[in-house]
Amino acid sequence: MANVMGFFHFLLLLSCFPFSLALQETHLPQINSNSVLVALLDSHYTELAELVEKALLLHTLEESVGKHNLTIFAPKNEALERNLDPEFKRFLLEPGNLKSLQTLLLYHIVPARIEPHSWPNSTSHSLLHPTLSHHRVQLSRQDSTGAQFIGTARVINPNAVNRPDGVIHGIEQLLIPRSVQQDFNNRRSLRSISAVKPEGAPEVDPKTHRLKKPAPPVKPGAAPVLPIYDAMAPGPSLAPAPAPGPGGPHHHFNGMRQVKDFIQTLVQYGGYNEMADILVNLTSLATEMGRLVSEGYVLTVLAPNDEAMAKLTTDQLSEPGAPEQIIYYHVIPEYQTEESMYNSVRRFGKVSYDTLRLPHKVLAQEADGSVKFGHGDGSAYLFDPDIYTDGRISVQGIDGVLFPPEEKSKEEKKTIKVATAKPRRGK
């Protein structure tokens, strides 16, 4: 009887051994209650702490804080709650975009201790620090005000939390790495940006009184039926109403959303606020470009940076329709990237691209390993390539404002000959 009880006791111990081993393997190390991570979860940066928990990053940060000190740049709650684009926030919280959310949050964490005195002393100097997302973030200072910046965000609350294993600095806005912004721009599937056959009512042939044969199907990605100049909204001197678009009443593309995306990318990229302001506030070109993209057209925007736009005079912008004409000359009705334009100018020397400012064309040529647009002193270089590319709209940053060459009108001198009747002589 004693042997039987001993055998059952051995089986009981054997069955409990794997379970206890599994508990030891899944047990997570406990962090100190005075840790910077605990301070982040208990701080007033509740929106950031909530995103860290949703991104499942607590275990990763626990391992990082055990190896070295951390510096966390925490955006204020308003930047994540009210100032953030709802579509971008919805994109981050989608389950399929967990990696993008993790990359964005780790972009705010530097695996080193950065104190307020670590910032450079002037704008001419800047420091780059690697982050946990393997992207590098820039530290800079503004000379006029002495404000400290991390990337494009101003530090508004340095040393908001100071702990032995890390420090938290409050910043004014969210930092968005370029890879996450590109993922957001490319979130649409290829099906959503492929062209569809225009729809229309059936037509009857008046001679045979039969239905006309439908036109052959348009291949996906083919150009729309109407030229882009016919689909543009004409000015009051041309027609009282906009010309009809080729897509019929059912628009397949969401052009307004794509235009909103590229304008937001211009603002977040930095250095192109004047261009975005003209598109949205000074003109209605953003709406017109969105309608063109909705109809199936593609556009390449040559965007001058803020330094170039600041050189425009009041006379150049004060004439009626002047801002529209300037921007029209910077929009090419083709889809071109930096690589495609550079390959063209390398192969052909000089290439003339059509613009929405008919009939003027913009000249492109290869110069100094880049693409140069325009003529002579009014030329501009391709400065920031591929700021935005989504298959329909391409935005290329240039360092100057382009103007078409002046047209010299020659007045023809018309000589009018007056015929004088000769008097008749009588017989």
TrEMBL record:
Biased segments, Basic and acidic residues type: 406-415
Signal peptide range: 1-22
NAD keyword on record: no
Xref: PROSITE patterns: FAS1
Region (Disordered), start-end ranges: 195-219, 406-427
Protein name: FAS1 domain-containing protein
UniProtKB keywords: Glycoprotein, Proteoglycan, Signal
Pfam families xrefs: Fasciclin
Originating organism: Hibiscus sabdariffa (roselle)
FAS1 domain ranges (all copies): 32-175, 259-387
Family designation: Belongs to the fasciclin-like AGP family.
Domain of life, per lineage: Eukaryota
